[in-house]
Amino acid sequence: SMPSSPLAALEEAERRLGRISVTPARVDGGVLRCGGCGELVTGRYLVAPNKKAFHPDCLRCELCGSECKTFASDPKLPNVLCCMRCYDDRYVERCTRCDKPLKGEILTALGGKHRCHVKCFTCDICTEPIARKFVEHPPASGRIICERCHVDNVCEKCDGCGRGISGAFVRALGGKYHRECFRCRRCSRDVTSRYVEGSDGAPYCRGCHVKIFAPRCACGCGEGLDGRVTSAMGRKFIEGHFRCTDCDGEFRRGKYNRVSDSKDGKDERAVCEGCYRKTYAPRCAVCAVAMASGESYVRNATSDEAMCERCDASPGSVCDDCGFCVTKEFQTKQRRAGFRNETDGATRTARRASGGHAVIGQCEACAREAVNDDVLAAHLMNRVIRFCAHAGARSAPGDQTVAVQLVAADRLARAADKRHRGPNANGPRGVTRTKITLEGRAPPEEWKKIMLGWKLERRGSGYELSEDNGSGSPPGDASCPTDRTPVKGSCDLADASPGSIQRAAQLARSHPDVRVEEKRILKGVVVLKGMSSDALGAVLAHEYGHCYLFMRKFPLLPLAMEEGVCELFAWLWLGGGRWDRGGVAGSNPKGDPRVAAWAERRRRQMEVRKDPVYGDGFRAALRGYEACGENLWTFLEHLRVHESFPA
Asked: Mapped to the 3 state alphabet, what secondary structure does 466-519 carry?
């Protein structure tokens, strides 16, 4: 409390100085004089701690000179009086916050670092008074901040709400969260105990993570994969969702079939066995039976049609003319119409070399164009001859009178001295019939050496020659002829091969005084009856190659070389080569796209045929033909002169 009068203030000052009472000093025989103005003191006066008396109005601070009714003495200068203000400025403890004298309620904090007025104890950031909790930040700096500012400005921030974290928190996903902030981003469910990190780095409950981020079920339901899944076709399905895409049924024993609605085979889907057989399974082009997945079947090399193994081994399942499959229905129709009756002129059956019968198949389309008339076949042969002459072969002697005869398969095999093989009667489709007669003159003694196969036109009366072994009589025998006039003879080897005939002629010419002349007779061409006009034309072109080589008197060629040249004739007839046809059409005079496609397939088969005679021989002939600039006459003349293909 403040002093009530200057005297009371003086007494208070005395008490501070440790004195109980002060007696003023008297001067001049006990007279009191004022320490301020020097006048005599009468009436009321004040006695200072320094024992001086003062008029009440003359008592002033000796430091600042201001009037004061309350004063104190300077501890360092006991005889000097000072006002309370000067005393506070010099000697009273100051507030550590506002630097003013510390009076009234005092607050002590941080172990005495801070002694201040209560109202001065404020936050260094927000300047609001600190009621209870505070934090020294940085540590040992003496800087004081309130709890709220410490959280907002100093503490680590929550990765969920962005506010500071104090107290319990959750450390997850590389950051820190308030417990109340660590929730599923989608449904706000508490996930502090269990969570799944999403691709966006946020926490999710398992259900929401599956709905948003999990791979979708491949069935197209839109649900995410979770728990047990089924893996099939390189995709994943929710268990129970992998079902037939047609009937939505389950797959028995887990078996399914892959199908695709696009030609490139993409976007595959699964169907059950029943739907596969009903809609997608390849069907046998012969019997039309659907083949189950995994069931083995055969692809037709020409048409790429599927055939079951049973039909593949069945006679007549493939058309011999175009290479396509023959339906079972048409095969039955042919059998009912007398397919095996040779008298009808439509038989295409043959005895197999291994026993039983084989059938030369023919589809319905080729059967409609079947050629069964020798006149039509001869007309087609004339077209082939004109085409080959225009292609560069030129005409051969007697080729305008080539006879064509259509015969059944068995008769054709007998004419070729061959047997058919396999269920589809793989064998000859055409045979060129020729005859070579040798006529010669030789002395009688030379005939004895070369008699085998020769027939003498005249017998001499003075000698006998054996026609069985040609040995004649021993030398010096009385039966030996004495006439040395050359004897004329002939050799007719109708059933012998051209090679055998030419070897017989060479053997005869090797003897002295023997002259041999060769006469060639083209009997004609025998071809399978009932072939389509397209297939018949290709066969006739091949056989005309034999006729051409025979009538042009080519030397004896190896089998692969001769057959290769004949295949080259057929290849040209089918449209092969880039030479100028000059309006002369081959196998397709009307430009029919179907015939053109068939001819292209036939040429491609010839070019890749795996056969040491017909395949390799044709490819060698084709290389020689191209080496001559596709000039057929140059190629043939080189072959006739050099007996080899041009390099």
From this structure: CCCCCCCCCCCCCCCCCCCCCEEEEEECCCCCHHHHHHHHHHHHCCCCCEEEEE
